[in-house]
Amino acid sequence: MAAVNDYADFARLVEQAAAAQALAWRGMERVADLQLQALEGHARAATGLMADAMVASDADALRAVFARGGDLQRQSVERTASAAGDILDVAVQTATSLGALVGPPARA
Predict the structure, then answer these.
(1) CB 24, CB 91: distance < 8 Å
(2) Residue 28 domain flag
(3) Which of 33, 42, 70, 104 has the maximal Cβ count within 10 Å?
(4) CB atoms within 10 A of CB 92
């Protein structure tokens, strides 16, 4: 009978490990998506600014591009801070879910 209990305990452990791994992968996937979205936003902003700088016809147009560059830099910092906050939220949610999956620690 002990072998049956050992098998059931082992099966439960394997199921918990698989569920924990799935949770961790989903969290990492969400983090990667958030990072890619932020990177795409940075790339779009930089590409548009460079394109405008390349077609600037005079010094005034180039000054306007430079001024817009400062605004884009501020927006980039805001996007980065927002993405970092979202990533932290995902990390907390994942850790909370993993903690709930494992349950309270066993008492000695």
Answers:
(1) no
(2) yes
(3) 42
(4) 11
Residue range of the domain that includes 82: 2-100
Number of domains making up the chain? 1
Distance of CA 7 to the CA centre of its chain: 38
Q: Is residue 107 part of a domain?
A: no
Residue 74 lies in a domain: yes
pTM of the model: 0.74
Residue 106 lies in a domain: no
- The three-point CA angle 21-95-92 to 5° equals 135
Cα 52 to Cα 62: distance, rounded to the nearest angstrom: 8
Query: What's the alpha-carbon Rg for the chain, to the nearest Å?
Result: 25
Burial bucket for residue 7 (CB in 10 Å: 0-12, 13-18, 19+): exposed
